[in-house]
């Protein structure tokens, strides 16, 4: 598989104590985190909002993965992730979200990232640990692929 989620996560794009009053504000904060590390231009944020208006990026287990539309790919400078934790939660079209993993991808890198995230979220213990992470190192470690032990 391509780059792992952990390798695409710039520590500067992690905020474990974010606050948003609503879903749109949360998406804007995620977009600003990606802009802040130079992964995307500011015009990527409207593409993230457009994606959300066409299909929800809520994955389950209190996690959403906001990302841009295909048209927004032109605003992506390099593939990256941003992770924002909302300890107070955000109403995501009726679902409580406490963790947003924002994705910026020029090509199809987001497919591999989504696969990795799905594997994490299918494991209730890992999903719980991801939502409860209190340090950037802990969060990055949880995003590392799990090796099978035999």
Which sequence of SSEs, written as H and E, runs from N to C? HEHHEEEEHHH
Number of strands: 5
Q: Helix fraction?
A: 25-40%
Radius of gyration, whole Å = 14 Å
Major β-sheet profile: 5 strands, mixed
How many separate helices?
6
User: In whole angstroms, how far apart are the ends?
Assistant: 21 Å
Question: Which features does this protein show?
Answer:
alpha/beta, 5 strands, 150 residues, five-stranded mixed sheet, 39% helix, 6 helices
Task: Write structural notes for this entry.
The protein is of the alpha/beta class and 150 residues long. Helix content is 39%, strand content 23%. The protein has a five-stranded mixed β-sheet with strand order 1-4-5-3-2. Helix 2 (23-36) packs antiparallel against helix 3. The mean pLDDT is 87.
Topology:
Elements (H helix, E strand, L loop, with lengths): L4 H4 E7 L7 H14 L7 H11 L3 E3 L2 E2 L15 E13 L2 E10 L4 H14 L1 H9 L3 H7 L8
Parallel strand pairs: 1-4, 3-5
Antiparallel strand pairs: 2-3, 4-5
Compact summary:
The protein has 150 residues and is of the alpha/beta class. It has helices at 5-8, 23-36, 44-54, 109-122, 124-132, 136-142; strands at 9-15, 58-60, 63-64, 80-92, 95-104. Strand 4 (80-92) and strand 5 form a beta hairpin.
